[in-house]
Design a protein that fits this description.
The complex is a heterodimer of chains A (194) and B (582). The radius of gyration of chain A is 28 Å and the shape is elongated. Chain A has one helix at residues 36-62, and strands spanning 72-73, 91-95, 98-106, 109-111, 114-119, 121-129, 134-138, 144-147, 151-159, 163-168, 181-190. Chain A is mostly beta strands and 194 residues long. In chain A, a hairpin with a 5-residue loop joins strand 7 (134-138) and strand 8 (144-147). Chain A is built from one helix and eleven strands, in the order αβββββββββββ. Chain B has 582 residues and is mainly alpha-helical. Among the domains of chain B are: 18-186; 365-545, Cytochrome C Oxidase, Chain A (Up-down Bundle), CATH 1.20.210.10. In chain B, helix 5 runs antiparallel to helix 7 (244-272), helix 10 packs antiparallel against helix 11 (367-390) and helix 11 (367-390) packs antiparallel against helix 13. The chains are: A mainly beta (194), B mainly alpha (582). The structure holds protoporphyrin IX containing FE (HEM) and copper (II) ion (CU) (2 copies).
């Protein structure tokens, strides 16, 4: 199946591929010898990665999938000044079924640590830190953000299924980091019923 | 050609190859031994702390037994990260590469004092950082994100460790340069080339973390030291604070190529050494070279895939880095094919038959081979979960959950570490001249690591995926811990038990070999395994030249980081460091 090799290896009768080996006295070539199966594998690998990549683009641009991006900077030493949305954070209703939730992170708690919304609500979360870095992941959702002093992180989600969703701090923030969490309670009463 | 050959009169001074004599060997071996010795010493502590972490997550908190040495879970976790991920790897790699470069070029170190200086710097850095780590003055985890602030000695220690590793690289570059002059027109041997490319990549990557520490952290850390301010009162003004987002970005500029710094030495061994250990040949040497060049090109401009969840970085930049990240998986997928094909050649040469039955004819009885093959299998799983993390969208599900420790214990914790163990199983006999203590124990070590990591990593992957359990958390005490976690935690504890046995076996093998009596001397010296290429054809010029690849790497970095780093610096805010939170 394959042509004679320069240096036959004992027992390699089943070598994949079978391109001609470079002639031993050929001048240095600019291309490299690629085995047939190896070339096929390269194409498959490139195709698979391209598919992965395209699906990322589709999710980002066609289905509107969001990761945190640039929203706004904030001075962490001025979070308590009047007018700062983080002086008295919490839930704000914009319209029926539409909310904003401001969450302030500090060692080792979220303020507020309990948020109640009716099922079917759409909530935009805004969060920042007063001290060190924190993180927030609302279990069972795609809300997963780093919380940095100096930056406001924001993402939006819709909550259709009633239940209690823990939100936990997932970046090490000191001695009691593992106790830092809160709960988002989605109540069975539908938005439309209000 | 023997070393004593008189130089022929007409030969120019520069073009006479200098060969590796006994004394050249001795210097290289000593340096290698010192470096890996320190690395293994660090790992001794690091691994056992890992075991405690695994048990803590399952509700078995044994930290009180370590008091007053280690006071808290997080102190232990910081030490685990720094000793395993930063210290063991860096020392091992510098030692191993010193060995590889000299032995592959068959040339003594050009300036041994440079590599000695490198070792001294790195060891001094380690000692300096060890003090605050063990004194609980630097419980900031190995990523030391501002505005947490550790004792200044921690940062200075890290800087010395990194600078030392640069110097170690310089020693290798000078040796290569000298070899190049003496051997004009000769293709660089693959093993030396791979090692050098890795060191150059590391050199570029570490600029990020160096800038972070020197500009954003160390001055404030020094200003917070009563001791330093007492000596030099002016230092008190250096307490500027830091920009956490910029600091993170500089850290991850370094943080992703860091993982390739861990991985490429393992690839080097898989491509260029392992086939020889199972009777095979390098299936396509030129592609292996291409793979290393691609890593030089692509390793750095991908750091934002660690910051998908960060505020303040535009989504477009995250997508750009996601693109390079996906293309970076390409050389790894090539590696999978080429390395397996090389090993298959060996198994068939050893009488293996069939589509898959040849696998049983691989050299499973040799612990050095077996450990590395297990490492490779674990890496296949780690690679898949890595592609998940790299995916802009799927990452949102698993970011900062226990999925991540599940992932990187398969990569740096296995692909790298278990491969390094396998390398040690020939390198230790080589350096000590003694038989491994013993082959059976070493084989048992490889098997238990393999099984232990499979269970451990699987449990953490699933726990993170299904329940979002956060990483870097003392889960045993967490109020949100749920009963549904229990099956996964049991699985990880079984894994940790295997890993504990495995770690213990490793140290028995290492110390047993080093300390064993002279009667265990080897009859025949061990040699570095070097796989021959299957097609020893010529290597095209473009695969043995630095300029285009380096220029390409720098161009990609400027393109992928330049404008956004400029923006981050322009908009930077000096945010005060936080008081101690541990
Ligand atoms: C006996 C084997 C090992 C065990 C049982 C073990 C256990 C663990 C556990 C349970 C964690 C998670 C802690 C958490 O997120 O709360 C962890 C973290 C980590 N491990 Fe290991 N480990 C082992 C070996 C290694 C090795 C060999 C390396 C690298 C060379 C390594 C590097 C790391 C790193 C970098 C972290 C992350 C630390 C952080 O989040 O700051 N581990 N280990
Ligand atoms: Cu936290
Ligand atoms: Cu990465």
């Amino acid at each position: 199946m394959s042509e004679p090799r320069q240096e036959p290896v004992p027992g390699t009768h089943h070598e994949p591929g079978g391109d001609a080996p470079p002639a031993s006295d050929a001048p240095p070539q600019e291309t490299i010898h690629v085995d047939r199966f190896e070339a096929a594998w390269m194409r498959i690998a490139a195709a698979v990665l391209a598919i992965f990549f395209i699906s990322i683009l589709v999710s980002a641009f066609a289905s509107g999938f969001q990761v945190p991006g640039v929203y706004q900077r904030i001075d962490p030493t001025k979070l308590y000044e009047p007018g700062s949305p983080f002086a008295d954070p919490g839930l704000r209703e914009l319209a029926p079924g539409k909310y904003e939730a401001y969450i302030r992170a500090q060692i080792w708690s979220f303020t507020p640590n309990e948020i109640r919304i009716p099922a079917g609500s759409e909530v935009t979360f805004y969060t920042t830190s007063q001290d060190v870095q924190h993180g927030i992941k609302i279990q069972g959702t795609n809300i997963n953000m780093m919380i940095l002093p100096g930056q406001v992180s924001t993402l939006k989600a819709k909550f259709d299924t009633p239940g209690t969703y823990d939100f936990v701090c997932h970046e090490y923030c000191g001695q009691l980091h593992h106790t830092m969490y809160g709960q988002l309670i989605v109540e069975a009463e539908q938005v439309a019923a209000q | 050609m023997s070393v004593q050959t008189l130089p022929s009169a007409g030969l120019a001074e520069g073009s006479r190859p200098v060969l590796l004599t006994d004394s050249g060997h001795k210097t290289v071996n000593r340096l290698t031994g010192l470096n890996i010795g320190v690395g293994i010493g660090a790992l001794t502590i690091g691994l056992w702390l890992g075991v405690l972490q695994g048990l803590e997550h399952a509700g078995l908190n044994w930290y009180s037994y370590l008091a007053p040495g280690i006071k808290t879970y997080y102190q232990g976790l910081t030490i685990h990260g720094v000793l395993n991920a930063l210290t063991w790897t860096t020392f091992f790699i510098c030692g191993f590469f010193t060995y590889v470069v000299a032995n592959s070029l068959k040339r003594p170190l050009r300036f041994p004092w440079i590599n000695i200086l490198a070792f001294v710097l790195m060891a001094a850095g380690l000692l300096l950082a060890a003090y605050p780590l063990f004194a609980n003055l630097a419980t900031v985890l190995y990523t030391f994100y501002p505005p947490m602030l550790a004792d200044w000695t921690f940062y200075l220690g890290l800087v010395l460790l990194v600078v030392g590793s640069w110097v170690s690289g310089y020693g290798m570059y000078f040796t290569y340069g000298a070899w190049r002059k003496e051997n004009p027109g000769t293709t660089t041997p693959f093993l030396a080339l791979g090692a050098l490319i890795t060191m150059v990549m590391w050199q570029i990557a570490t600029l990020g973390v160096a800038a972070e520490i020197l500009f954003l952290i160390l001055p404030s850390a020094m200003a917070n030291s009563a001791f330093l301010v007492g000596l030099f009162p002016a230092i008190a003004n250096w307490n500027t604070g830091s920009d956490p987002l910029l600091a993170r970005s500089l850290f991850w500029f370094f943080g992703h190529p860091l993982v390739y710094f861990w991985l490429l030495p393992a690839y080097l061994s898989w491509y260029g050494m392992m086939p020889a250990q199972t009777g095979g040949k390098m299936f396509s040497e030129n592609l292996a070279r291409l793979v290393f060049w691609l890593f030089l090109l692509l390793s750095v401009p991908v750091g934002f895939h660690h910051q998908y969840a960060d505020p303040g970085i535009p989504q477009a930049w995250k997508i750009l880095h996601a693109t390079w990240t996906m293309s970076l998986a390409f050389p790894s997928l090539l590696t999978a094919f080429t390395v397996i094909a090389s090993l298959e050649l060996g198994a068939r040469a050893r009488g293996g038959k069939g589509y898959l039955r040849w696998i049983f004819r691989l050299n499973w009885g040799d612990p050095s081979y077996a450990a590395q093959n297990f490492a490779m299998i674990l890496f296949a799983f780690g690679g898949i979960s890595g592609i998940t993390n790299a995916s802009y969208n799927m990452n949102m599900v698993v970011h900062n959950t226990t999925w991540l420790p599940g992932h990187f214990h398969l990569t740096v914790g296995s692909a790298t570490t278990l491969t390094f163990f396998g390398i040690l199983y020939w390198l230790l006999p080589k350096l000590t001249g003694k038989k491994l203590f013993t082959k059976t124990l070493a084989l048992a070590q490889a098997w238990t690591w393999f099984l232990g990591m499979l269970l451990f990593a699987n449990g953490y992957h699933l726990l993170g995926l299904h329940h979002g359990a956060p990483r870097r958390s003392m889960l045993g005490d967490a109020p949100y811990r749920a009963v549904e976690w229990t099956p996964y935690l049991i699985e990880t504890v079984v894994g940790v038990t295997f890993l504990f046995i495995s770690a213990t076996l490793f140290f028995i093998v290492v110390f047993g070999t080093v300390l064993s009596p002279r009667s265990r001397r080897l009859a025949q010296p061990v040699e570095m395994p070097v796989a021959e290429p299957l097609h020893p054809g010529p290597t095209p010029k473009w695969l043995d030249t630095w300029t285009p690849w380096l220029a390409g790497a720098i161009a990609l970095i400027l393109l992928s980081y330049g404008p956004i780093l400029y923006q981050l610096v322009r908009d930077m805010q000096w945010i005060p460091f936080a008081p101690r939170v541990w």
